[in-house]
């Protein structure tokens, strides 16, 4: 769970129904489009980051990587479902490639901290890249090899590389959370600083005013 107690209270208020569940999301993109799935800690942060990339149409917060069907946020936060907070990124492959999105992934979080991202601790915050085919798997593994050889990170990369699994769209109040709650303390103290750090290091194209 996120460490700040006020976040837990906010979730209770916003969810209205503590037993609310996620919904299974179709992983079949529209004609001419593509989809990629990444887990890199808090999905509020990840959604905001990927949606800023030129060529990305949408990023959806959700859960994947585990076995529980249609899990609720509370279940995932117990770290007993096997799921991680993740984003499904819908994009135009004519504008931005899967390889570039993998670059975004590694530039926007610390892939060396097992079961942790910043202040958020637990297996639901672990680092995972999902692939749809052998080509995407090779792109991911080649990137890890490159980053390791260049010693970009001081510690070993612990990112999991897994085939794309069922993806469950998170409850509605999680979607576009930063956009709807720009002054929320966690957003101001964690999400926005993480995004600003990403912008300083990422060499690719970002949308205007992002």
Name some characteristics of this structure.
single chain, 210 residues, alpha+beta, Peptide Methionine Sulfoxide Reductase, Chain A, seven-stranded mixed β-sheet, two-stranded antiparallel sheet, 7 helices, globular
Could you provide a short overview of the structure?
With 210 residues, this protein is an alpha+beta fold. It has helices at residues 5-15, 43-51, 73-77, 98-107, 134-149, 177-180, 185-201; strands at residues 23-25, 34-40, 56-64, 84-91, 116-117, 120-121, 127-131, 160-163, 167-169.
Your description of this structure?
This protein is an alpha+beta fold. It has one domain: Peptide Methionine Sulfoxide Reductase, Chain A, CATH 3.30.1060.10. 34% of the residues lie in helices and 20% in strands. Helix 2 packs across helix 7 and helix 4 crosses helix 5. Mean pLDDT is 91; it is low at 3-18.
Helix content: 25-40%
Structural class: alpha+beta
Compute the number of helices.
Answer: 7
Q: Which stretches of 5+ consecutive residues score pLDDT under 50? A: 3-18
The succession of helices and strands, N to C, reads HEEHEHEHEEEHEEHH
Percent of residues in beta strands: 15-25%
Beginning-to-end CA distance, first to last residue:
28 Å
Please name the CATH architecture: 2-Layer Sandwich
Q: What gyration radius follows from the Cα positions, in whole Å?
A: 16 Å
Q: Say how many strands there are.
A: 9
Which CATH C-level class is it? Alpha Beta
- CATH fold-level name: Peptide Methionine Sulfoxide Reductase, Chain A
